[in-house]
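Bumping with the actual sequence this time:
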Amino acid sequence: MINFNSIRLSIIITSQHRPVELQRFFRSLNAQSDIDFSVLQIIFVDQGDNKPFFDTLDGRIHKVYLKYHQCGLSEARNQALPYVKGEYISFGDDDSWYDKDIFSKVFKNLDEKLDGIGAAIKNEDDIPYNIYPKRTKRITYLNHCGVSSAGMFLRFDPTIYFDENIGVGSKLNLLSGEETDYLWTYMEKHPGFNIMFCPNITVRHPVQIKQNFSSHVEKSYYYARGFGYIMRKHPLPRYYIFQKMTLPFAGMIIHLLKGRTKAKQSFFILKGRLEGFFTNQNLNR
């Protein structure tokens, strides 16, 4: 009989058609050192034909396999949330992977009775995905220290779901913001939260400027739409919203003196944030 009380961390992952990357993700889980595998739960929402790769996971890991149709990232993750048994939760990307000591570090830090920790995202050459603090730092409501969902290990709250209007695959073209929305929702429900950014913990992920977009400008625009949407959704200070709207406007003016490409990017960031901000909020889950 499975002892669900022993599970400390549930990892949700979903994938469609990335067999090479998905195999790398599962191999990195099997290669973990200095941990008891029985404290891990992996919930895999398969939007393709990837069960043979899932079956390669170490048998000591608690596993849940869910076959589901192709959909947006937020919807897929929501399918997994009712199956979570861990005290903490994390969200793996199918093209991410882990160093062999990451979970021993994660559990060591979570022993400090934190509500969660944030890790840096870097590729195999240690090139960072974002700008991260150099030292351990408390994550606040308005400063998430550059943390994204693949590097987030958060105490599980079964009442919080992802807004299916936002994230990769969004039908409203709000292609980012789901992880920030999830984290803000957690912080609002748990005002005494204690979450730390730990620079010594790294999740591996390719660092791609364009990713699946035709250009960096296009990516910035669609990501800005998602961020604009969640800025209106949450009770943010007015100065924060003003700052996030005026910075790309200022950047547009400054970069016009240096080169059109960055000025164009600033314009589309402002355009995207405004469009997202005024998207119908009644459509969210």
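The tokens above came from a reply further down the thread. The mean pLDDT is 92.
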